[in-house]
Each structure stands twice: as C-alpha cells, then as structure tokens.
C-alpha cells in the first residue's frame, strides 16, 4: 500500500496496525476473513433497508420522501465483528431513517486517514495509534466514537509454551512485522516485571497466520482476542494471553475508532451527526442482540466463517460499551496517556493536541 504521509518507522506503525487487523480477521486455515473481491461485492451492495419512520433526516427532508444523502465509510480491513454495528446500521435501515445512503467500502491505495481527509470517503474505521500519528503529520482527521471501549489486544501463545507473564517472554521468540512499536510495547510491559526485552528474539513473520507461526516459527504473537483468541477456542487449541491493559494503563487505547475529517465536521455537521447516531444504534443493537447482529454480518459477507462470527460476536458484544455510560464515549485521559507513552518511547514526532483528536459531540445522549 502506497503511503505519502508516513516514512521509515512511522510506516511501521501503520503496518503494525494492519498486522493486528490481519491477526484479528484472517488467522487460520478456516479463517473467517472474506477475500477482498467478495468483501467488496458485499460491502457495497446497499443491504436491505428498513422502512423509514417519518423522522427528520440529515438531508432536511421527511424520512422516505426525499433523496438520501450518499456517503462512504471505509473499513480498516476485511469485514469482521469490529464492524458489525456498521452493517447493522446499514441493513436494518438505521442510517436510511436519518436520510443517509451509506456505502461500506474496503480500503484502497493510501491509509484510511489520508482517504477521509482527502474526501475519498466521508468516514472511516481507524485506530487511536494511527490517528495520533496522522495528526502529527498534519492530516486533519478526528475520532468520532470508540468502537470498543478498552483495548482487547495482547500477546498470545499456545499453553505448552508456558508464557503466562511478560517475564516469560525472556528467551522466547516473538513474531511480528519488525516495527519499533512492537519492541517498545513488549519492552514496556516487560519492564513492569523487571524483565529485559533484549532477551527476546524478535523476528518478522509477515502475513503468516498465528496458528501456523506458533507451531513452526515462533513462541508468541500479538493478536486481538475477539477474533484469533475466539478462533483458538473453536479449534480446541488453548492459548495463554498477556493483555496489554493488565500491565499498563497507557496502553489501554481505543482500537478501533470511527473517524471523519475536520472539514466534514465544519461543513456538514448534520451528516456527521446522522452517521454517528445511526452507527450508535447499530452497535447498541449488536450489544443487545449479538446473535441477530452476527446474522446480519454473515448475510452481508457470506464468505465469513459463520461459527467464528457468531462466537466472536457473543464475546465482543459486552466489550463495545463495557463500563462507559454510552457506546462510543471517549476520554481525554486515554488520548493523552497513549500520546505520552508514544513520546516516552520516541515513537511520536511533531505536535499532538489530544483535545483536537476526538469529539463526543455527535454521540446520542
């Protein structure tokens, strides 16, 4: 993927996010991740829209009586349960009721942040780490909602590797993409236990899936439990998890988030509000009805592993809102803490104002 914003180690940050997304939606031979062609076909098909309810829509017309406003939301990766609320919002008609015709599309050349900033898509699925980096590079993007309230990623290993804490990383082999962020995160949580990251052998495994890698090449890898961890359960391959949030509050960042451009917020706030409110209704539906929400995602992207989608959705549903007062809520301290962590580890260049990086203003009360 061509990148005109980040270079050197900054590109590695973006690659790491892609690696985690890949681990979260394409692991294993029975992987549940649709190929791009199938995903594109299903992501852009418009879905089955519900009847409008006569409420005022974003275009300023009565629901069902005026032309819908067309917008795009760009995914970060192949459709998976991080995105279920978006498909529910589209296919249950929650956006249509608000005057929007939303097309869900796959990422193309360039990063999601670049593409929404340039207007190629009005909205996108991003990550706090990527959005933070983008803003330091003068890419004017803003997080609108936290899809998941707490970071569910961590370092996974088969139980027979006996890796239960960061101290156990010593003498083991980690497989990733060779990004400085990976070593910084591993070193940060190891330091909390007085362990030495220099005693970890870090190798690049590229796109090799987790289950193949830990049997053949490595001892542990970075995954999202909601997909790869749940898949391990279904495969009967128990794993140990070392969650980042168990060892550092600063690593409890928002991943993923829904984002838009500063221009959209300034010029079309009604459209932004309609999008966020529809997405919120979609994710709240998924929280309350995980099985039915899983069916919506499966119908939209039939190439996905149905058993994995249902199990993942059940695991993830309470994590969307978790301890927040409402779905999507973001806290300034979370944005500040992670930026401070990146600065401490010399991973952040340029000025970053956390107060301008996110907003809760468009979330329904």
Q: What features would you describe in this structure?
A:
This is ABC transporter substrate-binding protein. It comes from Paenibacillus darwinianus. Residues 80-293 form the SsuA/THI5-like domain. InterPro entries: NMT1/THI5, SsuA/THI5. Residues 43-64 are annotated as: Disordered. With 365 residues, this protein is of the alpha/beta class. The protein is globular and about 65 Å long. 54% of the residues are buried. It has helices at 9-25, 36-43, 84-91, 112-117, 128-136, 180-191, 210-216, 225-235, 262-267, 269-288, 290-300, 306-321, 332-344, 354-357, and strands spanning 69-74, 100-105, 123-126, 141-146, 153-158, 173-176, 201-204, 221-224, 239-243, 257-261. Helices cover 41% and strands 14% of the residues. Helix 8 crosses helix 12. The strands form 3 sheets. It has a 5-stranded mixed beta sheet, with helices on both faces. A 3-stranded antiparallel beta sheet has the order 8-5-9. Strands 6-7 form a two-stranded parallel sheet. It is built from 14 helices and 10 strands. Strand 6, helix 6 (180-191) and strand 7 (201-204) form a beta-alpha-beta unit. It has 2 domains: 29-149 and 254-352, Periplasmic binding protein-like II (D-Maltodextrin-Binding Protein, domain 2), CATH 3.40.190; 153-251, D-Maltodextrin-Binding Protein, domain 2. It starts with 8 loop residues before the first helix and ends in an 8-residue tail after the last helix.
